[in-house]
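[agent] plan:
  1. take the single chain provided in the ticket
  2. run structure prediction with default settings
  3. attach C-alpha cells to the ticket
  4. add a short note for the reviewer (M.T.)
[agent] executing step 1
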Amino acid sequence: MIQRIQTLYLLVVAVVAGGLIFVCNLWTNQDVIVFAKDETIALSAFLLSAALALFSIFNFKNRQFQFVLGRLNIILNLILLGFFVYQSLNLSGETTVSEKGIGMFLPIVSIVFLVLANKAIKKDEDLVKSVDRLR
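[agent] step 2 finished; step 3 output follows
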C-alpha cells in the first residue's frame, strides 16, 4: 500500500537525491563552488537514484520487485559514494586548500533510508507470508 512507512523512506530518498543536490555543494576548488549539476556523472547518478526511488514507491503491489529496486538503488549510491571518495582524494593533493561540501554525504543519507525502506518492505512481505500460511 502507498501509505506504508517505506513510502516515506523512499520519498525522503527521492527528495535527497533529486532536490538537495541543487542546494548542497559537493566541494570547493580554488574558490569555485562545485555542485552536482556541474558534474555530469554525479548529476546522472543522483537523478537515477531519485527516479528509482519514485518508481519503487509506485510498485507497492510487487514487494519483491520493490525490494530489488531498493538494493539496486543502494548499489548505485555506493558507486556514487566511491566516486566522491575518489574525487576527494584527488582534491586533497592540491597546493591550495580545497573544502569538501556537505553534498558528498548525501549518498550516505540515501543509503540509510534505503536500508530502512528495505527492512520495512521485508517486514511487510513476511507478514503477508505468515497470513497466507494460516489460510
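[agent] step 4 note for reviewer: Residues 5-128 form one domain.
[agent] ticket updated
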